[in-house]
Amino acid sequence: MAMMNPPHPGETIRELCLEPLGLSVTAAAEGLGVTRKTLSELLNGHSGISTEMAVRLSLGFGGSAESWLLQQNLYDLAQTKSKLDKINVKRFAADLEDLYLAEQRLTDVRAGNSKTHTLDEVERNLGLVD
Prior knowledge:
The chain is mainly α. It has helices at residues 9-21, 25-32, 36-43, 51-61, 65-81, 96-110, 119-125. It folds into two domains: 9-86, lambda repressor-like DNA-binding domains (434 Repressor (Amino-terminal Domain)); 96-125.
């Protein structure tokens, strides 16, 4: 189950990678083959883990590149979900349950088992015809 508010991956890197090894930002950046500024921006939450950085972190500190990217994706997703009230989207498809029930009605109508819906009504509701 995903965390509701995961920490920025930079915080994880600082606490679980640099601090236990006694690495400074400069030393870690040199070891990872990036600039101090690049690593500092990541550690301070001003940038995220790119695919290239994920590979570098994997090679330098262990774990898979995928696990580093997953941390970033979970963080990004949590940040976006916290702003759902600002996202205006028109829904194009019915909920799966509604779609399933509508398909069941269509099946019933096609089989002649429905007395409440016509085939045209159900097909129009499903968006199968104009």
